[in-house]
Amino acid sequence: MNCDLHCHSTISDGLLPPADLVRRAAANGVDVLALTDHDAIGGLEIARRTADEVGIRFVNGVEISIEWNETSIHIVGLGFDPQSASLVDGLATIRGGRIERARRMAGELARIGIEGSFDGAMKYAEDPSLISRAHFARYLVELGVCADVRRVFESYLVPGKPGYVDHRWASLADSLQWIHEAGGIAVVAHPARYKVNLPSLRCFLGEFRDLGGKAIEVTSGSHTPEQTQLFARIAREFGFLASRGSDFHGPNESYTDLGKLPPLPADLEPVWGALGL
Ligand code: AMP
Ligand code: MN
Ligand code: MN
Ligand code: MN
């Protein structure tokens, strides 16, 4: 079964509308898709309807931005009730801070001579409350500051670079409470991507497990083969279920297309078993 449980639509910082994303997944041979927009679940209904039309299975998903020990981390929620007030209200509180963060980012960029980036980035965001660093990156490419978004992140939008500002996201405990109260399963997104050393990451994973977190992404569009092996070992060690997700954002921005990633290591227990699939 080809399961892809992590991707983005124009609801957050992806480049395809939810329905087009689902059709592309089906064309790529995906059997089970989860749409996991950042801090937003507004695309789930149309995505599910489209999945029904094209005959693939669909899992409700979201990717929640959190902060742990001053590190920004992403928690994917899967298989929840999208009507849950706890989840709906919790996600609204995170979105509430994004516009103000974007103003501060634009202020920092203006200090180094890049003017107008708040309005410029906003042109790329369908919903202003979901303004993301990815939208700033697209605007800086448009300006010709860098050749592609990857280079914009390297030089401008990450900690220590001039366009980065600190931000208070949700806490780990909040995010797991929202997911669990909505009946969902919590998954650590792309665990190799965080700016922490392995001992700190183990400490984080222990807290995540103590709070009821069940799974980690082992096969991810952003993992090297070595990182997949490392997180397979960590999943065995912690007793985590394993997830697989491309983190696809768009045809020309993501290296990994929907469903086009290796299978999970065969001995791991896939998270989709716990989702009743
Ligand atoms: P934000 O939620 O506003 O902090 O933006 C985070 C988003 O920026 C991620 O979900 C990715 O879509 C994008 N992003 C982060 N780092 C990189 C990178 N190194 N290259 C390309 N896109 C990135
Ligand atoms: Mn993104
Ligand atoms: Mn992420
Ligand atoms: Mn993602």
In short:
The protein has helices at 18-27, 44-54, 85-96, 98-111, 117-122, 133-143, 149-155, 172-181, 198-210, 225-238, 271-274, and strands spanning 3-4, 32-35, 57-68, 71-78, 185-188, 215-220, 241-245.
In angstroms, what separates the terminal alpha carbons? 10 Å
Query: Element order, helices and strands?
Result: EHEHEEHHHHHHEHEHEH
Radius of gyration: 18 Å
Number of strands: 7
Mean pLDDT: 97
Query: What shape does the CA trace take?
Result: globular
Report on this structure:
With about 280 residues, this protein is of the alpha/beta class. The chain has eleven helices and seven strands. Strands 1-2-3-4-5-6-7 form a seven-stranded mixed β-sheet. Strand 6, helix 10 and strand 7 form a beta-alpha-beta unit. Helix 1 runs parallel beside helix 2, helix 3 runs antiparallel to helix 8 and helix 6 packs across helix 7. The longest helix is centred in the middle third of the chain and has 14 residues. About 45% of the residues are buried. The site of adenosine monophosphate has 10 residues, from helix 6 and helix 7. One manganese (II) ion binds next to loops.
Keywords:
277 residues; alpha/beta; seven-stranded mixed sheet; 11 helices; binds adenosine monophosphate; binds manganese (II) ion
Which secondary structure elements does this structure contain, and how are they paired or packed?
Elements: E1 3-4, H1 18-27, E2 32-35, H2 44-54, E3 57-68, E4 71-78, H3 85-96, H4 98-111, H5 117-122, H6 133-143, H7 149-155, H8 172-181, E5 185-188, H9 198-210, E6 215-220, H10 225-238, E7 241-245, H11 271-274
Parallel strand pairs: 1-2, 2-3, 5-6, 6-7
Antiparallel strand pairs: 3-4, 4-5
Helix pairs in contact: 1-2, 3-8, 6-7
The protein binds adenosine monophosphate and manganese (II) ion (3 copies).
Adenosine monophosphate binds at residues 13, 38, 65, 132-134, 149-150, 153, 249.
